[in-house]
Amino acid sequence: MKAIASAALLTLGFATFAATTASAQDISAGERSWNKCRACHQIGEGAKNLVGPHLNGLFGRHTGAVEGYSYSAANKGADITWDEAVFAEYIKDPRAKIPGTKMIFAGIKNDKEIADLTAFLKQFGKDGKKS
């Protein structure tokens, strides 16, 4: 009985380790994907608006809401709250999701890459600190 319990705990421990490792790998892959964004956006402590707004605290934020950034009328009027599904749709083709947006980006079409980028972005709170 002890051998079965030990095996179960070992299996559970490995599953937890694998899930944690997979998550870290996703964030790491998302950070590499972030390189496609960093020419126009910043994230993290001290992030500033560039060609595009900073992306701290993106998820849960309303479109057109970053103070000090000059949004297009289309973005201001989009009435979207960013969540994972909306971001995934947007990042595939920004101009299809928000016609008239100033964002000029070909998009990221790969769902795995979008999920990885989302995991990376979700680390950063409104203050730019990693959670």
UniProtKB/TrEMBL annotation:
Ranges for domain Cytochrome c: 25-125
Keywords: Electron transport, Heme, Iron, Metal-binding, Signal, Transport
Gene3D superfamilies associated with the record: Cytochrome c-like domain
InterPro entries (UniProt xref): Cyt_c-like_dom (IPR009056), Cyt_c-like_dom_sf (IPR036909), Cyt_c_1A/1B (IPR002327)
Record's signal peptide: 1-24
PROSITE patterns the record matches: CYTC
Coiled-coil residue windows: none
PANTHER family the UniProt entry points to: CYTOCHROME C
Listed name of the protein: Cytochrome c family protein
Organism: Bosea rubneri
Organism phylogeny: Bacteria, Pseudomonadati, Pseudomonadota, Alphaproteobacteria, Hyphomicrobiales
